[in-house]
Amino acid sequence: MNAGRKWPPQANAQRHIPGQQPIRPRGPNVLQPKAAAPQVRQTPTAPPVYRPQPAPRVLQAKMPATHHPAKQPQRAPAAPPVYRPQPAPKVLQAKTAGVRQQTAYNPPRPAASPACRTDIRRAAQPKAVTGVSRPRVVGRSVQALAPPNPPCVQRMSIRGTAKAAELSSATRNKHVVALGDQPTTAQQAYSSSTFITAEADILTAVDADAHNFTESNGAVSGRFDFDAQVSIYQYQKAEVGAGKAATLDINGVATTCEIGVKKTGDDRIQVTHFMKK
Amino acid sequence: MTKDGVSRPVEAHPWRDKILARCAAWNWHSPTLINILDSEERVMSTLDSWQTYVFHEADGNHTTEQLLSAARAQFPAQEGIDDLILNAVDELVESLKAVELWDHADDLPYDIEFPRSKMSKEEALRLMRADGLIP
Prior knowledge:
The complex is a heterodimer of chains A (277) and B (135). Chain A is of the alpha+beta class and 277 residues long. Among the domains of chain A are: 83-150, no CATH class; 166-276, no CATH class. Helix content of chain A is 46%, strand content 17%. Chain A has 13 helices and seven strands. The relative contact order of chain A is 0.09. Chain B has 135 residues and is α+β, with helices and mostly antiparallel strands. Chain B has one domain (14-130). Chain B has helices at 49-57, 64-74, 81-95, 110-113, 121-130, and strands at residues 19-22, 26-30, 33-37, 43-46, 59-63, 99-102. In chain B, strands 5-1-6 form a three-stranded antiparallel sheet. Chain B has a three-stranded antiparallel sheet with strand order 2-3-4, with helices on one face. In chain B, helix 1 crosses helix 3 and helix 2 crosses helix 3 (81-95). The longest helix of chain B is centred in the middle third of the chain and has 15 residues, at 81-95. At the A-B interface, helix 11 and strand 7 of A face helix 1 and helix 5 of B.
């Protein structure tokens, strides 16, 4: 019995492809009641779902939201919060809280920066002079004088600590010679020689200057040259050549010299150039 | 003096305002002469006395005109000093390519600053790294 009833339907079921819906058994029963109400088929939920309006609305709303962020990254990357003009002004204002300082600093600047060549330094030096007691003041004043749109740079004094300069290996090698060794070293040289007896002779002059010139992060800066009085020993040669006589021309006298410094990008100031002016 | 044998004033020299910077490894050939070395530190040429003078003074900090002024002061009795110096400059820059012309003063790399007898290339690079001048 059961087998007789079941076989036909099974046969039909076997004919159907897996993806097809079985229409026989329940279909008719279910469809009939539904078909009884033909309106139900038309109204089903399908139409509203397929309406084009809702989908586009969602897309449009999302699109603008996604586009904006794509544009914003272009602005943000180059200028992190640190470079935004707003923070600087805020600092400036707070510092200028002693507005008197800025106005008062301007006049003394020129006189205070005799050795400096660039405007940036001179502007910074005066500040350094006013803030002689604390290097931080120097850094602040430098910010105040910094260009409106500073590149990706750093200024040592902005970091809040005064960086002591150091001699490069080449400068030390060429110029720092003990007093007793100088005659021999000068004679062995090919041409004239300029010596100092201690690194401090140069470094003192460098540290007394405000090194507020720019450098690229992680890269060596260009060389900044300035003049300073340094006690030197200079040997002159009338005839070039190693072994030729060298005569002491300047014997420990404060002399105008040109000093070149570089910022190495890792918070160091290297004296890479020194010569009698 | 030009190739035509005509003397020329430094004021007319196209490189008078250019910084002279040596760009070749070197070593002493004698107390007064310099050897120019190639990349494998073989002797490429031995400079004459005036070329040696110019090469040695081409430290990246002086212009052609400044070098000439210094030479005039150091060798006051030397006749034709201007031509001797300028010819040496021309040869070092154009023929030997041992000196470069810069627009701005700067430091020489340590391996060019010092003769090989005083500092090897490896030592020069080590010191430059220690000084933070190269990565």
